[in-house]
UniProtKB/TrEMBL annotation:
Coiled coil: none annotated. One of its GO terms (cellular component) is plasma membrane. It comes from Novipirellula galeiformis. Residues 211-296 form the Mechanosensitive ion channel MscS C-terminal domain. Its main location: membrane. This is Small-conductance mechanosensitive channel. Residues 139-205 form the Mechanosensitive ion channel MscS domain. One of its GO terms (molecular function) is mechanosensitive monoatomic ion channel activity. InterPro entries: LSM_dom_sf, MS_channel_C, MscS_archaea/bacteria_type, MscS_beta-dom_sf, MscS_channel_2nd, MscS_channel_C_sf, MscS_channel_TM-2.
Length: 337
């Protein structure tokens, strides 16, 4: 067209109104069901309405796929520094938030460009979310507990914890559940609400732990000799326990029990060696006590009888109960009459 020219529309002509895809679809289906449609109308519908919509749908899927790749890349880029410098669990949580936020925005933009009624869809999702919230209160409670644990971080992946009556190493913290691996190599999945609603014991949080072995010895044992034996037992691990202020070791006489003198043998060790050194210390204490001939009493009951004059026969004569002899003529098993 040459610049400055005008297109003249003849009088009496009008532009045909644009028919939407849904209206055209309804019209073709109505014509086919009533028998008024023909192949020409179907071909026109396919070329003028269906093909452009399929092309737009393909473009939309491509955009969603590209958005998925971008969301995955950005979530990894953002979460890696957090995992490395702050905490692995919190980094994974932030990565998931970034991923789902980007995907939600991309899908919403594609649906908006394709003409989807987002206002009505939002209202429908709100009503569905209210109904789902009432139906899945326990699941939403697990979700809320998971978010709180990821934000406040009472423990992280790799910690050994005792929570909800289960002790194990944390393998994964999800939004709904927490996965623990027990010392005997069992995997237990615990709902987050059960963990956050109870007491959480983080066993491996600190680098040092105190081993404590209670020991009871006989009252006849010499106190200084007992202390020397227990000190010799704990000094066997001098190269392995943690020295320093409020660390090191201690041998304490804690109580005078009902049948024994109670001692406590303590030493501070690295958390990773706690169970091994506790077992070794217990064995060494037994060896040192045996070497010093110090006995470990066991609970026993001594009964003292007093003999009163005139009641000897009543107190010390026990009636003898003899088993009844069975008559040889009687059958071994009774018969029902």
């Amino acid at each position: 067209m040459v610049e400055g020219t005008e297109t003249i529309v003849p009088e009496g002509t009008a532009t045909a109104p644009r028919v939407s895809f849904s209206e055209a679809t309804e019209q073709v289906i109505g014509n086919l069901t009533s028998g008024e449609g023909d192949m020409v109308s179907v071909v026109d519908y396919a070329t003028q309405h269906l093909a452009p919509q399929l092309f737009l749908a393909a473009i939309g899927l491509g955009i969603v796929f590209i958005g998925y790749l971008a969301a995955s890349y950005l979530s990894r880029v953002i979460s890696k520094p957090i995992c490395r410098r702050v905490d692995e669990t919190f980094g994974i949580f932030v990565g998931k938030i970034v991923f789902y936020s980007i995907m939600f925005g991309v899908v919403g933009a594609v649906l908006s460009k394709m003409g989807a009624p987002l206002g009505g869809l939002a209202a429908m999702l709100t009503a569905a979310g209210f109904a789902i919230g009432l139906a899945f209160q326990g699941t939403l409670s697990n979700f809320a507990s998971g978010v709180l644990m990821l934000v406040f971080r009472p423990f992280k992946v790799g910690d050994v914890v005792n929570a909800a009556g289960v002790m194990g190493k944390v393998n994964e913290i999800d939004l709904f559940t927490t996965t623990l691996d027990t010392p005997d190599n069992r995997r237990i999945i615990v709902p987050n609400s059960s963990i956050s609603g109870g007491t959480i014991e983080n066993i491996s949080h600190h680098a040092h732990r105190r081993v404590e072995v209670p020991v009871g010895v006989a009252y006849a044992a010499d106190i200084d000799m007992t202390r020397a034996a227990l000190t010799a037992a704990v000094m066997t691990f001098e190269s392995e326990f943690i020295p320093g202020e409020k660390r090191g070791y201690a041998v304490i006489m804690s109580n005078l029990g009902a049948s024994s003198v109670d001692w406590l043998v303590r030493m501070w060790v690295p958390s990773k060696d706690f169970f091994r050194l506790k077992e070794s210390l217990t064995v060494e204490i037994k060896r040192q006590l045996d070497a010093h001939e110090i006995s470990i009493p066991f609970p026993q009951l001594d009964v003292h009888l007093r003999r009163d004059e005139g009641d000897e026969e009543v107190l010390f004569q026990r009636p003898r109960v003899r088993p009844m002899r069975r008559n040889a003529a009687e059958p071994s098993f009774p018969h029902a009459s």
